[in-house]
Amino acid sequence: MTHKPSLSVQELVHRIEVGSLKGFILKAAFTLAVVGIAALYLFFYFRGFETETAMDQAQIGRQMAAGAGYSTLYIRPMAMWQFLNHSEKLPEGFFPETYNFPLNPLLNAVILRPIKRWWPMTPTDLVYIGDRAIAAAGVALFLGSVFLTFYLVRGLFDHKVAWMTVGLVLLTDMMWRFSVSGLPQMLMLFLFTAAMLLLHWAINAQDEERPRRVLLLLSGIAVLLGLMTLAHPVACWVFGGFLIFVLIWFRLRTISVLLTFFVYGAVVASWLVRNYMVTGNPFGLSIYNILDGTSGSELAYMANLQPDLASFGSIKAKLRGGLTAQFQNLFGYFGYNVVVAAFFFSLLHIFRRRDTNMMRWALGLMWLCACVGMALFTPREEVSANQLHMLFLPIFIAYGMAFLLVLWNRMDLHFPPLRTAFLSIIFLAAASPLLINLLTSPPGRIAWPPYVPPFINAVSRWMEPGEIICSDMPWAVAWYGGRPSLLLPATVKQFNLIHDYRYLGGPLNGLYLTPVSGNQPFLSGIARGQYREWASFIMRTADLSRFPLQYFTPLPIDNECVFYSNRDRWSTSTQHSP
Asked: Quick one: pLDDT at residue 578?
């Protein structure tokens, strides 16, 4: 009986260095690194949601998962105005959602349904389980998008550029922050990357003179971009850029453009019809987001039961200012990734492959149109609901990296260590924001100010079933408290009107004020700004004798929150106004 000789140490080392084990070890190390970064962002540095849109869409998703349909617990006075103008009455039962488009809340509903038994918060839940579940789904979508990006870039260039692109994307701090933000961007990124993969195939099919395949692929792209629009309405501007490219580049122009347009329209039409039937406006309440920054904030308009829409006349000035602001902050919107800048220089270079050249012009058109949309619906921060630059970041990195490699090769430096140093500098520069964030951000903290989920939940528990609370951060009350919450009206008179006439089916029995209003500059934000009508309530000097809520108590965290009520709900000793 013969025995197979054992593997010698020398042979094992050889396989690791150049043989079959090298690829396995590299892939295993890469996977562990990705899992490690994901775990850091999801478990050690995750503080819960920090944006209004994330909490708003999460509570809508929970409503859907609970069987309440596409309804909301976050009630905007402007939504009430829209319903009253359309049908002269407010809807009975669950309050229909008309601000957010449905795809991301639907995804949230799918995520939240299996964990229904853990929906109620406890006083020890610094990070709500719903936040963590939705953030984990965002990470999964991000990694799925990176997977699609690899195959797209490998088709456009080669596997080396594809691996470099994947590495640079995974080292971009902003992309990880978006992945755990609860915003719809990761869902949009997945759909957009899939659409770009189909577009690359369509360009190749055009060159191969396969018109039926081209039309089929264009239809698929239209479906994906339509789904993107159902995730975020500003994505319609991306579709506009794509439609221009179809008109310019593809043969059978009339058929291609009409087919693409009608397929896209079929995807979004049902939602537009639903909004029109409910509110009289196909875009529902979301269209008024365009007023943000014209003569006041979007929140100020949404808080008004009698809004003044004369500010539509200043949209032109907003467009000009929005475009200027975007290009001034462009580096930040692209996550401070230095390779992205090289994409714009790559437009001056002719690559060997025709499909690679054409793809970048399609991307450029879609990005320019998206810039116009973002100028009208201005992103407030680098990680915000209206920020669409990040959709283009992975593929821009691919073109930028390919262009930098072309420039390096033209230098004809046959010294491998220099090339290694060059690539290392690029990767280190791209990773520096991520490293700084991980090294300087303290783990395990809540998103204060203004959010303390256990306190928000505790305040909501003071209310009885069926009672309505009013707040300057109703999105958080709706999500963490599970309580119908009215956005603080623009004036005390409007508050009293909603309370006295019971527009929402009952009186307003609680008023919860937080750093959202209290941390504003005193003169510009409180005394003369958006919250001027509520200045005395914020400062706790109001005469409550003629106000429906005559009891109040400060809340413990830094004494920056205050709760007004129609009765003492928190202790046996009341705090009454003089």
From this structure: 32
